[in-house]
Structure formats: C-alpha cells, structure tokens
Amino acid sequence: MNDSSGLFLKGALAGSLWTASPLGPEISVVMVVYRTGPVLADSVARVLNDPDVDELILVDNGSTVEEAAVLDAAAARDKRVTLIRGQDNVGFARGANMGAKAAHGEVLVVLNPDAFLQEGCVRALRAGLKDQQVPCLIGARILNQDGSEQRGARRGEVTPMTSILSLTHLSKMLGGLKSFDIHHENEPTPMRGIPVPTISGACFAIRRYDFFSVGGFDAGYFLHVEDVDLCWRVRKAGGQVLFEPRARVVHLGSTSLQSPLKVEFWKGVGLARFFRKRADTAKRAAAAFLLTPLIIATSVVRPILRGQAFKSRGGLRF
Fold first, then answer.
1. What pLDDT score was predicted for residue 146?
2. Nearest Cα to 114, choosing from 41, 216, 212?
3. Contacts by 79-85 with C-beta closer than 8 Å and gap 24+?
4. How far apart are the C-alpha atoms of 71 and 60, rounded to whole Å?
5. Superfamily grouping for domain 5-144+152-159+183-251
6. Would you say 163 and 242 are in contact if contact means Cβ atoms under 8 Å apart?
7. Is 19 exposed, middle or buried, given 0-12, 13-18 or 19+ CB atoms closer than 10 A?
8. Distance CA 200, CA 203 (A)
9. CA atoms lying within 13 Å on the CB side of residue 8
10. Torsion angle, CA of 236/141/221/92, rounded to 10 degrees?
11. Statement: residue 11 has pLDDT above 80
12. Average pLDDT, stretch 34-63?
C-alpha cells in the first residue's frame, strides 16, 4: 500500500457515493506482462487506440527480447505509457500492485496482456462505477474468439466444495450437483450490470481508492485466484462486485509461453491459500488445510490427462 492510501481510506466509508474528480487523469490501465507471446503488441495497441484511456502502466515481469522491444516502442511513442521493469517475475498480484501505485487515474482498469479491448469497453466500465457505493469492483464480459462468453467471466461463490466439483466437472456430469456449479456463462446475458460474487481478473475496473482501501491484491498469490480473493474482500468490506455485459473484451487465454502444468499448479496453490484465508472457524481451517493436497493434485492432473502438461500454453480456467 502506498503512502497516500490513508487518503483513499477516508473516501471509502461505507454507504458513501463516489464521483470522478475533474482534476488529473481519469482512467489508468494496468497491464502485467510476462512471456505473453506475439499477441502482446496488438493488446497494447488496442489500449492506446482507446480514446477513453488516459494512462497505460506496463509492468514488465520478465519479457522476452521481442516483447521488451514492443514495450519499449510503446513507451517511446506515447507519453501516456509508464514502463516498470527490473523487478524480475514477482508474480501477477505483486506486479499489479506496483502498477496501481504508479497510476494516477481515478479509475484503475486491470487488463491481461492477451486480452483485446472491444469498442466502448472502458467507457462502459467507467459508467458502471458511476454513483455506486464504495468499495465497488466491476468486471467486463470476457469473450472467446468466437464471441461466446468465456468460462469464469461471472462466477458464484468460490468454496472448497464448488471448486472441487468444478475442477472435476462433476457438477456438470451429475444433474443433482448442478446447483453447485459456480459458472454462469451459459445463463442468459443480462441487459445491464448485475451483482455477482466473483468476476474474472482478465479485465475489471475499480476506483483507485477502493483498490487501496481493501489492501490491493494479496501479494501472497503468485498466479491465479488473486482476483477471486479481491472480489471476496470487496464484498467482505460491505461493497459489491458487478458483472457489466456491455463492457466486452476478447481474451485469448492460450498464448502464454508458460507450461500449463505450472499454470495449474499455481492455481491449485492459490485456491488452497484462499480457502485457508476465508476459514472463519477452527473446523473450517482444518478442512481447508486437509484439502490443500487434493486441490493442488486435482489442478495439476487436469493438463496431464489432456496431454497438455508440457505444451507452451496457458490460460486454462477452472
């Protein structure tokens, strides 16, 4: 948390309403980059071509030579770009926190480097935050390349039970367990923003003082589940999480040079951490601790069964 976070806390009192300040930049996009692949240039270009973006913070967690050249070129040609590097790979959560601290905008838009903003996305996210009680986090509608809604774009409550059933797909295979399915992408698309327990971290917006008032991302997560944790803490603080269908982003989600085995391992570790954090009784804490090996093993086994364990593809979603 930066030194000015105390000021943000004063603005985030329960029940208060927020309106944008007319001074300074309004929208800061924060993008954490690590071995994204050739789609990075297009993702950055789309952000800088968006007239609603006032600032782009690029956090380089250890790019390839080609990716570093893309970041350098963007910083050289556009004064809205701030490039942060030299910290090696500190993980997504810590990198995003670094980007948020460097940002000056009233609103932070956190965007994956393999996600493409669609026309009006940032504008819709900003409008969705207007007059909302604080803290408030609003997620975009994340789309696959074919236009279908991506798995994980809007989710229910993430618990040990719902996660195990989702990871194993038992909630879909067994009709009696359908109510435990946390994924809502196959439900009718709402006309406007609606409250949901959990949204995708691939693209979301949050007021800068809201972000710091809840402590930012938990840097104890290295990759994955930090978005689930942030949604939970926003709601725990008396705020709300919204899904905004009019803000659209195409997320490729399969471009990372990381092995899916590593990606899924960190996802399992993140889920286990999350369940230990939210355990509010000794019994639940013990259950979360005992489930940790099962959750990690289930996560890692999936890419092995799919024959993807050692392919350079990421973005697998539970």
1. 94
2. 41
3. 80/48, 80/53, 80/54, 80/55, 80/56, 81/48, 81/56, 82/55, 82/56, 82/57, 82/58, 83/58, 84/57, 84/58, 84/59, 84/60, 85/59, 85/60
4. 8
5. Spore Coat Polysaccharide Biosynthesis Protein SpsA; Chain A (3.90.550.10)
6. no
7. exposed
8. 7
9. 24
10. -130
11. no
12. 95
Torsion of CA 306, 308, 309, 314, to 10 degrees: -120
pTM of the entire predicted model: 0.82
Q: Report the C-alpha gap between 318 and 308 in whole angstroms.
A: 15
Structural domain boundaries in the chain:
5-144+152-159+183-251
**How many residues make up the chain in this entry?**
318
In this prediction, residue 309 has a pLDDT band, given cuts at 50, 70 and 90, of very low
